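Researcher: Next entry in the queue.
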Amino acid sequence: MNCLKIELEPTSSFITKIESDTLFGVFCWNLLYKYGENRLIELLKTFNEEPFIIFSNAFSADKLPKPYLKPVISNDKNIKDIKKTALLNKVDFIGLLKNNSNKNIPLTLTQINDLIRKGLEEKQTSKKSGTEADIEENIERANNIIIQKNFIDRLGNYSNNKLFAVEETFYSKDIKLNIFVKYSDLITKDEIKEIFKLIAVNGFGKDKSTGKGKFHFSIIEEFEEKELLNPPDNIDKYWIMSLSNAFINDIDNNELIKYKFIQSYVKFPKMGGIAATSDVPFKNPIVLITPGSTFKPVVKKEYYGNAVKNVFASKYNEYWHSGYILPFFFIGE
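Model: Structure for this entry, 333 residues:
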């Protein structure tokens, strides 16, 4: 499969998080608007066997998700500071993995944990450039704020004096977000670019009609992380970390992966596009694996995970919910 990195520059606040499965749904709706229903149906025919496109979640341009690894004993009792290291510095992490990959020297999971702990210690011992400063910087660059809004009676067109809360994410002007993309020959880079142009103009997610979810973007074909997104020949030496919200059929007996260190959660997704105003706008709940979950691959593949059926309301039950993993490969034992 082909690899791209899409760099986003938010120009408004966002209410909906840019997650891989949500982005896939938004992408498909805009593909339908741009190229018609027949084109979308053609691409979805084999989606459960050969996905035409797979997205990662959106990450800050200098961050990757913290990998879930085999637990190691730590004498550090400062739990609050440990929790603050939810995201690792991408440059340090990727640099170490690439160096070991080039030398073909296995990097154990314990060594990766030591890297995380070392980074934490360096931040704790430094002054303004330490953990506290990094957290302060993140707060300045991306703020989640609870907004109180009025309930509106649409029939009578008046407020009933009740409030409801909406969480909005506000980004600073200089922040950039990265989305990694894998796509097959069933779709072209130009088509992907045109569809993202439509999403950027119309907005992403909830309340886009009021100006939420707007962004500028650029598509990058050659980038630092690209070699770590492609499957290596000596797959037996490698682990994968998911960069997507994922779903794996029969995860305990799956023949493609083993040795799983994962975190999961229940998502209550909602329909998009014109289906959002249908009689049943909500999908069925689905258990997804979060980015950062790690696996030992048994078989060399461009992607892992599965598409999911029976998530949609009965009228749309023939459609697929994307649970594919966009994998990040690293050497481990």
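Model: The chain has a mean pLDDT of 77.
Researcher: Noted, moving on.
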